[in-house]
Design brief:
Length: 429
């Protein structure tokens, strides 16, 4: 398949994360200006508000054009896959026409000159636990004889996260304080976490929602998904270990969740679809409401995911970040469609812009583990860095960087942009 070239030259260099076939949506702001929606193309951003005013979106439904003039993606998401598909088709058309180059160039803004903002007003946030490798590894650390709880292979496990503490990549994360209890202590104490961790995840946004009381069929689930981003669900493992009994994560998780600024649409990801995770012989089949032939055949996504670490000392020495792991979204036990379907199966009303996280993405090998809890085996086997530093868990000044990309023969490689954040010291506890 021939790769279509864009009139924006930086989109054709073979290195960009944002070729013409990607066109992810985000929200940006010039200094001292209002927020507006844009599309990443090469090293530029196409200003959709300006494009609408210039008449480049003429012919599209009015609700699509109006949604491009907003300061968040919620209105566009509410139109469903049909709305974003029509808009992407129009954008691809005029961004590939050399004759339209003179009209397009005034609408472009270099990515380096703007501030990226949260692309969505997130009303609700749910985080799942969809990697069986992660669930088994973590379970083995705490329950060596019974690592995987009996419901795991039947139901997509999740918890309700905190939407208000979701931040865009680049915003610092303050080390949280909380209650912890040392094994030899008679009572808990309050203080900064000593086991701050990252979690390599992918987030996906609800597009068209559902009415309260009306479940979403597995065959229709993906029509309710607008697109995806990278997600770091920062976690305080020592706080988590003390508080999660019996109701699950609370303050160990809700102090900060970082997402990447660009939302890659499901249509852009179509060439990189893969079969769903192959369940081992003897595992139960999903219950009928979580089962569909189409989802088994192409419910997975061949998305490579990387974690990089840059310590304060490394940056002072101008050393490159170190890659800690590389995983793949194909390793999820549960598909995106299954997670969304289960979420709505009790009649829960999902709304445009709601964020769902996959949970930590880990693979079968040591170099594909998605958090330090797994990599260091709860701190027992510290990571050795090239400059002689070691890490059991994150220290103040550490910067965690997630990268994600899809590539396949005959198609341009597409990426998500970086999801990064630096750890700041705790305030007085």
């Amino acid at each position: 398949m021939a790769v279509i070239r864009s009139s924006v030259e930086s989109a054709n260099d073979g290195r960009t994360e944002f070729p013409l076939s990607n066109l992810p949506f985000g929200v940006f702001r010039h200094p001292n200006a209002s927020a507006r929606i844009g599309v990443a193309i090469g090293d530029q951003i196409l200003d959709l508000q300006a494009a609408a005013k210039d008449g480049l979106l003429t012919g599209l439904d009015e609700d699509i054009t109006v949604s491009c003039e907003q300061d968040s993606l919620n209105a566009l998401m509410s139109l469903g896959r049909e709305g974003s598909r029509a808009l992407r088709a129009r954008l691809m058309e005029f961004l590939s026409e050399q004759s339209a180059r003179s009209r397009v160039e005034p609408l472009l803004v270099p990515q380096t000159r703007v501030k990226m903002l949260l692309p969505v007003r997130v009303g609700d946030y749910t985080d799942f636990y969809a990697s069986i490798y992660h669930a088994t590894n973590v379970g083995r650390l705490f329950r060596p004889d019974n690592p995987l709880l009996p419901n795991y292979k039947y139901v997509p496990i999740g918890y309700h996260g905190r939407a208000s503490s979701i931040v865009i990549a680049g915003v610092e994360i303050r080390r949280p304080c909380g209650q912890t209890k040392a094994p030899d202590a008679t009572a808990p104490s309050l203080g900064p976490t000593r086991a701050l961790d990252y979690e390599l995840e992918v987030g996906f946004f609800v597009g068209r929602g559902n009415a309260r009381g009306a479940p979403i069929l597995i065959s229709e689930a993906e029509s309710h998904i607008f697109g995806m981003c990278l997600l770091n669900d920062w976690s305080a493992r020592d706080i988590q270990a003390w508080e999660y009994q019996p109701l699950g994560p609370f303050l160990a998780k809700n102090f900060g969740t970082t997402i990447s600024p660009w939302v890659v649409t499901m249509d852009a990801l179509e060439p990189f679809r893969a079969p769903a995770f192959a369940r081992p012989e003897g595992d139960p089949n999903p219950l009928p409401y979580l089962s569909a032939d189409e989802d088994r055949l192409r419910g997975g996504i061949d998305l490579k995911l990387e974690v990089w670490l840059s310590t304060a000392k490394m940056r002072a020495e101008k050393a490159e970040p170190m890659r800690l792991s590389q995983g793949n979204l194909r390793d999820l036990y549960w598909t995106l469609a299954q997670m969304l379907t289960h979420h709505a199966s009790n009649g829960c009303n999902l709304q445009p812009g709601d964020l769902l996280g996959t949970g930590t993405v880990s693979g079968a090998s040591r170099d594909s583990l998605g958090c330090l809890l797994e990599i260091t085996k709860r701190g027992a086997e510290p990571v050795e860095l090239p400059n002689g530093e070691t890490r059991k868990f994150l220290e103040d000044g550490d910067e965690v960087i997630f990268r994600g990309y899809c590539e396949r023969e005959g198609h341009a490689r597409i990426g998500f942009g970086e999801c990064r954040g630096v750890v700041l010291p705790a305030r007085n506890c």
